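Data card: per-record layout.
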Amino acid sequence: MSRLLDSYLKQKVALTLEMGDRPCRATFCTLQELNYRISVFETFQSIYHAAKTMAYTNMSEHYRLFDGFVHIIMDERRYKSSDPEVESRRQTAYNTMVSVVNTYRKKYSGYVQKNPSDYIDDISETMNTFLSVWLAHRNTYYNIKGA
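The structure for this 147-residue chain is written out next.
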């Protein structure tokens, strides 16, 4: 996911330069979506780095931090489409995201780590899985070309 974040950051710079004094609607919309995705990826990156210190002292507090952020972004920037096919794809992607969240919540409800690095590895895998389905969901709203 860090390669995708780097790609988004490069695209943001290019679009910012392209906009100049006369921004067009398409460029502006793409830039807004890039800003949103960058902020989500950077937040997950911070949460992951926090796992390295917090997991050793308070794994459950770290998990609540992660799950709380997921809860916030689950319904963010969702709007209806007048096209039933698009709405169906969005709903399918959203249902997949909900399924991933339910699966990891079940996993962590009775989570027992054998050593501190187990949690860090597991939460990293969980974050990557969630970000993949979240990104597929976001692409049903605004697909960024070239990322």
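Known properties of this structure: Residues 2-139 form one domain. The chain has a mean pLDDT of 90.

See the next section for split statistics.
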